[in-house]
Amino acid sequence: MFLPSDNIKVYLALGYTDMHKSINGLSILVSEHMELNPFSGNLFVFCNRRQNMIKVLYWDRNGFCLWHKRLEKHSFKWPTSQREIMVIEKRELSWLMDGLSIHQVEAHKSLQYSALY
Fold first, then answer.
1. How does strand 64-70 pair with strand 85-88?
2. Residues 10-27: pLDDT tens digits?
3. Which domain of life is it from (predicted)?
């Protein structure tokens, strides 16, 4: 079972990806198109045009892992943007997998403090 560490990043490849691509093709997309390191241990998330399939690629110590989810009904709320890459939090990825938008207006935002008062 995959339990991501707290310090990983989640990268969404915005737009649509050919889901015929497997580990080799997706890792090349990460390296050449996204200009990121596929061996970083971060999660790289891809979606098809119909938005009913998601693939997550990541490096786990000694090999690549590819996680694939296909919805039998409905579609994912895949974000759109002018950018090609979006960095999201793990909880936003969980929302996405559960059929929710990553932009939950009622969710509590993360707070970062540098001092105690």
1. unpaired
2. 999 999 999 999 999 999
3. Bacteria
What string of H, E and C letters represents the secondary structure of 62-104?
CCEEEEEEECCCCCCCCCCCCCCEEEECHHHHHHHHCCCCCCC
DSSP helix, strand, coil percent of the chain (3-state; round to 5): 15, 25, 60
Each residue of 30-42: pLDDT tens digit?
999 999 999 999 9
Q: What is the rounded radius of gyration, in angstroms, for the C-alpha atoms of the chain?
A: 15
Burial label, 78 (beta-carbon count in 10 A; 0-12, 13-18, 19+): buried
Contact 107, 89 (CB under 8 A): no
Q: What is the distance between the alpha carbons of residues 16 and 47, in angstroms, rounded to a whole number?
A: 6
pTM of the predicted protein model? 0.85
What are the boundaries of each domain within the chain? 10-97
Q: What digits encode the pLDDT tens for the residues 79-110?
A: 988 788 999 999 899 999 988 888 877 767 77
